Amino acid sequence: MIRILASWPLERVVGLGILSVTLMFALGLGGLAHLGHRTLTWPTTPGTVTDSRLSRSLSGEKERYTAHVESSSAVGGQGYRSQQVTRRSSPPDEAFARRVLARYPKGRPVQVHYAPATPGQAVLEPGTDAFILGALAVATVVLLVGGGVFVSTFRPSSTWPGRRCPGTPSPQGAGGVRPS
């Protein structure tokens, strides 16, 4: 494998590298987008917010704020608890966390969206994140560019009989005579 890569032009190796890294990134983002999108079709059940508080932590020298919201619900007579408000990402700032807490005070009745196969997996706000969709769009563009760089390093060849692409040797020998 190393010999094959060593014999390739640098542009082909770079194109393959771009394709590989971006494909892994795009698959991860696609999975997150799919999970978020699936929550839009989940059934709902009545629930109650059982805990609603602000959590503060230090990340390096920066303060991070998180809205800790827990809800309880029942599906098929079985009780469940969830600590996930949404599948979307959330900024770690205090103002955002306080807005989430204002929407979900302790004791508030809520509609809980739950996964039919695993009702313990639930969210209060279904959907996916615009940031994830934007990053997925950028990854798709980078995949196309990387694919173009990779493919452009291969020599063109014609499958039409009697046609040659520029730079390919003539099927005839020296002097224009076909070798026998």
Automatic annotation (TrEMBL):
Name of the protein: DUF3592 domain-containing protein
Region ranges (Disordered): 66-93, 157-180
Membrane-crossing residue ranges in chain numbering: 12-33, 130-154
The keyword Transmembrane is annotated on this UniProt entry: yes
Domain DUF3592: 45-128
Polar residues composition-biased segments: 69-89
Pfam families according to UniProt: DUF3592
Keyword Transmembrane applies: yes
Provenance organism: Deinococcus aerolatus
UniProt keyword terms in alphabetical order: Membrane, Transmembrane, Transmembrane helix
Matching InterPro entries: DUF3592
The organism's taxonomic lineage, starting at the top: Bacteria, Thermotogati, Deinococcota, Deinococci, Deinococcales
